[in-house]
Design brief:
This protein has seven helices and two strands. The chain is mostly helical. The protein has one domain.
Length: 145
């Protein structure tokens, strides 16, 4: 366990400020856009605006950083676990709102709504890491993240 915790500490200690800035920029904009789309399409939304910060910055960025060196499918698998917990808690604590009879309910049935959301949002980790790496390389002229 100590080896695992040391690995986590090293990963964050060795993460450049410019990379964290890139993650923050992309994930905050992504969170705002997805919350706006979910509200517009009447699928789901956060109950409070600040949840974009807590969810995307304080939850998803650290997980993304820990997963960035793994394969697409490994990132997706771990992301599925992370998003499953987040989706479950969001709806259980009623800090996320699912619109009644939304398009996902109609397509997958209401009983599968949270699962569908978790499966979709788990893609954020591999796609987000790819987008951050590409932008970071382009803006900061680095070879790798």
């Amino acid at each position: 366990m100590q080896l695992f915790l040391n690995d986590i500490k090293e990963t964050f200690k060795n993460t450049e400020t410019s990379l964290i800035t890139t993650y923050t920029t992309i994930y905050v904009l992504w969170g705002i856009a997805m919350n706006a789309f979910g509200t517009y399409a009447e699928i789901a939304r956060f109950e409070y605006w600040w949840q974009i910060i807590t969810c995307y910055v304080f939850y998803m960025i650290p997980i993304s950083i820990l997963l960035k060196k793994h394969t697409f499918f490994t990132q997706y698998a771990y992301g599925l676990v992370a998003m499953g917990v987040l989706e479950f808690l969001g709806y259980a604590l009623q800090t996320s709102y699912a619109y009644p009879d939304n398009i996902l309910d109609q397509f997958f049935q209401p009983q599968n709504f949270s699962l569908a959301m978790a499966m979709f949002f788990a893609l954020y980790f591999p796609i987000g890491n790819y987008a951050v790496a590409a932008l970071h390389r382009k803006v900061f002229k680095t070879k790798t993240i």
